[in-house]
Amino acid sequence: MKEFLRKMTVSAVVTSCILWGFIGVCRAYSGIREVGFGEYRNAIEFEDGKLKIFDYTLN
């Protein structure tokens, strides 16, 4: 049981670091677009049937 809790804790820490890192990158992208290009754009958008992730568009 102790080994399971240790592995679960390490997995939770690694997962939360990756998640918070991605959220930070998304917020930085939004700020760069607003300051650098004068437009407010989220890092992840869905409009007109297209998914936009950063500067990439997926149909």
Describe this structure in words.
The chain is α+β, with helices and mostly antiparallel strands. It is built from 1 helix and 3 strands; from the N terminus they run αβββ. The protein has one helix spanning 2-37; strands at 44-47, 50-53, 56-58. It has a 3-stranded antiparallel beta sheet with strand order 1-2-3, with no helix packed on it. The termini are far apart. The model has no long low-confidence stretch (mean pLDDT 95).
What is the topological layout?
Blueprint: H1 2-37, E1 44-47, E2 50-53, E3 56-58
Indicate the overall shape.
elongated
- Name the helix and strand elements from N-terminus to C-terminus, one letter apiece: HEEE
Strand-pairing-aware structural class: alpha+beta
Report the sheet-strand fraction. Answer: 15-25%
The stretches of 5 or more residues where confidence is low (pLDDT under 50) are: none
Kindly report how far apart the N and C termini lie: 46 Å
Sheet having the most strands = 3 strands, antiparallel
The rounded Rg comes to: 17 Å
- Count all strands and give the number: 3
Helix count, DSSP H or I runs of 4 or more residues: 1
Summed over residues and divided by their number, the pLDDT gives a mean of 95
| Fraction of residues in helix | 55-70%
**If strands are numbered along the chain, what order do they take across the biggest sheet?**
1-2-3
